[in-house]
Amino acid sequence: MTTSALPRRALRLRGLTWLVWRQNRAAFWIGLVIALAVAVYAAVRHQETVTAIDQRHLNACRGVIDPSSSCFTKILAFGADYQYPMRRPLQVMIVLPLLFGLFFGGPQLAQELETGTYRTACSQSVSRVRWFLAKLAVPAAMTAVISAVLALAMTWWWHPVADVMGGQFPWYQWYPYYGIGPVVVGLSVLLFVVGATFGLLLRRTVAAMAATLVVGAGVLVLMDRIRGHLLPTVTVNKQHTSAIPGPDDAWVMSDGPLSASGARVSDVNSCYSSHDFDKCLTTHGRTGHWADYHPASHLWPMQGVETVLCLVLAAALTALCVWWVRRRLV
User: Exposure pattern of 84-113 as b/e (b: 16+ CB <10 Å)?
Assistant: First the structure.
């Protein structure tokens, strides 16, 4: 008795999905190859870093900032060898979302609208909205995949270095913050949609890319300015000190002196030129210090909130584009 095996159907892209992939396949493959190459390089550097931490016996020195400590010298030497080489890659990562907006988003719709070739697709029993969603969904998915691979690679490389250096490699500076974690994906998807939106509205490739560059840069600046307000800060009050209270790796948003009753009072600028700074403050009734700060534990929750904000904005722009395609695209 023989049985005939059921034919296996290969997973293949079909229809508009296949068409959009074919139109963009060169850019997609280049992005994937670059992302995988960076991932391999980051994995090698991660292993080198972990090995160096063990060989230099830095596990007991994590986060030390006392210049008189022998650990401090070890951490400085470690930073020169392993933190500085990652500065440029982390700084370049801030440009990544702009690249997706410029080269994936801007030309995506503008080229077809500029030449009128979209009418061919829409004349083949395909609605304008379906055409638009396919043109947006496939590149958006590839944007998310490529940016996620790069973000994971950079986070994997960054983590052991940041763990050792602590406050000497602040997590809240624009780098490494915008070179690691899910916020890279959120910003990349958002700026891709921004580019696609300008392509739809302006119908000119060069104009869409220029508008994406200007607005995208503005979005990055705006996100950097509001991210400190995405989560509530931790407040600490401490008497009998003029130093800013809180952890060494905290992102201090605001601080100032306290009176003996615990009230926040204004600073005394004349005390900064005094020979005995603490005594001068005490004389003026400044007996303590307060601070509002974000601890290092806020890094991933803050990135999560910012990523959700980016995706919500991207969804809102997509809804605007769907309305435009239905009402205005002819």
Answer: eebeebbeebbebbbbbbbbbbbbbbbbbb
